[in-house]
Design goal:
The protein contains 24 helices and 22 strands. By secondary structure, the protein is of the alpha+beta class. It has four domains: 235 residues, DNA ligase/mRNA capping enzyme (D-amino Acid Aminotransferase, Chain A, domain 1); 112 residues, Beta Barrel (OB fold (Dihydrolipoamide Acetyltransferase, E2P)); 156 residues, 5' to 3' exonuclease, C-terminal subdomain (DNA polymerase, domain 1, Orthogonal Bundle), CATH 1.10.150; 68 residues, Rossmann fold, CATH 3.40.50.10190. A hairpin with a 5-residue loop joins strand 12 and strand 13. 34% of the residues are buried.
Length: 599
Amino acid sequence: MLSLGNAFDDEELAAWEERIVRLAGNDVEKSGYAVELKIDGAAVSLTYDDGLFTIGATRGNGTVGEVVTENLRTVRDVPLKLVGDHPRGRIEIRGEVYLPFDRFEKMNEARVQAGEPVFANPRNAAAGSLRQLDPAVTARRPLRFFGYSAVAENLADLPFRTQWELLEQLAAWGVPVAPHRARLKRLEQVHKWAHDIEHTVRGTLNFAIDGAVVKIDSLRLQDDLGVVGGREPRWAIARKFAPDIAETKLLAIRVNVGRTGALNPYAELDPVEIGGVIVKLATLHNEDLIQRKDLRVGDIVQVKRAGEVIPQIIASVPEKSEPRGKPWRMPKACPSCGTPVERDEEEVAIYCPNVACPGRQLEGLVYFASRGAMDIRGLSYSRIEQLINEGLVTDAADIYSLTRNKLLSLEGYAEKGTDALLTAIETSKSQPLSRLLSALGIRHVGSIAAQLLARHFGTLDAVASASIDEIGSVRGVGPIIADGVVKYFRNPGARKLIAKLRAIGVNFSEPQQVAAGGALAGKTVVITGTLPNLTRPRATEAVEQAGGRVTSSVSKSTSFVVAGEEAGSKLEKARSLGVEVIDEAELMRRIGERSTGSD
């Protein structure tokens, strides 16, 4: 499932048309355009075999998603059986699951009455609803669905030749399709349609949109134009709309503590409706931004929903804000634990150095369980919050002490879901060291730095006992990361957590990633530009698994350069030094793998 490039105004949309006209000439004018609303929901894929719904999955990273078939069966708009003259064999229908504004508000009202935390916005609520372990929970959420695409192994078998015919056929098969779509011949008509949607129609909709999608109508021409970098189709683009802006009063500036200890200021606002959602809070990022915008409590401020999701304050309105309050300053002690805060000389962020700070607890545990870290499926934000409130979990190690009886005693836990969660918790113990290092919330250590450290040192004990110089000498790891790692493992709270994780049996080692006798053993490789099928991390992984080493700069010692589309100075330097340049297909041939694309 592909991603779309963006055009933020008529000029950028015209530039997109110029690019495809250079490639396809008069065929663009002959084709015309199909234009659709860009639904702000959760993208899903529905697989039908002989017209019967068999597999449902989230978009994931575009290539691999989560199977959520049973949850999607509860969405009233998802047809369990296609109607009419549908094709035989396997067909995949793609679309967006969303929450209507009115049902979202009623759902949040019910959660408030039940003492449960409210959802921040319809998009996140829809995505979270699809990932519930218990389909009964998903069924209670008022989810809806719009389809926008259909694909099959043999596209020639599908009964349509244009995007417009595709949408009409989806509707004939019983798949809901978003309203206000149109078939237009010229770009001037697209501009007018988009303006009407943005300024007239958008405010009347009962669901969120963050723009429009403009597609070449001819499916044959779509296929000819192809995809850029394996991710973005040349034949489609998102015409983004300007965010809605409203004015309201800044009631207070509060501070919460993030998972790595960073102090994050946020604004409490007099509730105001923006784009169909009531906004009460807005991000403020850091103290420097507050000072640059000269925001003060009591000001009338302009607020927008950035990307239609996260509210942000644009600026204060001084003429409406008299008299003004005092300039705001970040507290000198952590508002959660009272520890004196610190600030890196090279950073804007101010943070609490106390690893055991209660303010870091919730966000830290949520990240620990997330897919990018220990990947404990079913341990959601609300569940972690519940476990903390019940006194069952205070740190990450406590997750592994949860029992079936403890969980079943809590509200919302059924036997099947509880067993699945406990299995996920037990499975996560065997995650590699790189995942654990990322999950611990060490300052400055993200997934890439965690992989570099894990592959270099091999064990957690080796990382924990390494000096700043030893860590900083790891290729790709600088002094800032090294300082954060050393400080973390010197902290008594961190050492206590590590001891508990060790006692529970969590894996502390990294499997050998580099094949000593691999096809690229001893080779130094540079990757530049956008490859047709492989992402940069996947290409790096492939080289390393074959025994090679990936570096960021070209030199005479470079064995070869893998160049993709829009390769720049590294490609020029390779040519000037006489270094061999190959493409992705040749790389995979040398490794012994077949390069494959993704739909």
